[in-house]
Amino acid sequence: xxxxxxxxxxxxxxxxxxxxxxxxxxxxxxxxxxxxxxxxxxxxxxxxxxxxxxxxxxxxxxxxxxxxxxxxxxxxxxxxxxxxxxxxxxxxxxxxxxxxxxxxxxxxxxxxxxxxxxxxxxxxxxxxxxxxxxxxxxxxxxxxxxxxxxxxxxxxxxxxxxxxxxxxxxxxxxxxxxxxxxxxxxxxxxxxxxxxxxxxxxxxxxxxxxxxxxxxxxxxxxxxxxxxxxxxxxxxxxxxxxxxxxxxxxxxxxxxxxxxxxxxxxxxxxxxxxxxxxxxxxxxxxxxxxxxxxxxxxxxxxxxxxxxxxxxxxxxxxxxxxxxxxxxxxxxxxxxxxxxxxxxxxxxxxxxxxxxxxx
Length: 359
Fold this sequence. Notes:
Distance between the termini: 37 Å
Strand order of the largest sheet: 3-4-5-10-11-12-13-14
Largest sheet: 8 strands, parallel, barrel
Number of helices: 10
Order of helices and strands: EEEHEHEEEEEHEHHEHEHEHEHH
Helix content: 25-40%
Shape: globular
Number of strands: 14
Strand content: 15-25%
Structural class: alpha/beta
């Protein structure tokens, strides 16, 4: 029987010591105008190097991709140099670390962006709700609809950021296609009103995700590339009428391209019947961040590996409170209890990558 503490090889490439992943959790600690990682971040990730795989907080691939204060980028030489400090620290501890590339799209505010920029999206539809800024919570604005040329530039930005990630010493990248951010906005019914080749039909809706994944895989090799999705996730004012159809088509298209991707990371939604279907349709490594609302993912989730529901399980909040989580899981505890009050956004619904604004 396979257990969480057996090694695994991602997509025929990177070997991991165990099957416990650290889920991406935005920390908002890249203080200053240059959005560069800090020594504190190097310490934070190195403390958690016992994970089979660390996936970093969301990292914007371009200035306009930033949606929260003090989140780090991978689009300047200074950011690349600063991230090298982080990856070196993790590697010294024997860890493996992927950078999560996250373009937030319409989720953000002009006050978080360089002068003259405004959030962008597939369609000019504002999200309901507010975003945290240095001035406090502010209403989301109506985003600028991306032109054809701007879409292609955004795809190129993802590929360039992936090259920067490799230069910075990362073992690979995870493309964030979940949680209501830009890629998810192209997939969803209420955020993509386009009638051109980037919307409308199922094939049109999945096109942006497919082209981003393809461009990144061509830039750094598919074995270094993972994709995160969250079918049916309503976070950030997302509505998906038929996630089974959209995500089935997405996986079918990606599988047909034979990109040899490192893994698929599923952030499970409230429909548990979709998980085994996607697990069956994905031929490679399947990482599961299980839906555990109202609780955080706990040690019981390890059974998902033992029964074959997943190849790896991703932990979020429990990793914040227990930096040596794999050791504690192997020993059966004890576990520190995460402080749910540290999660930004109120009702976290078990999701793991809200900005955590305190230690």
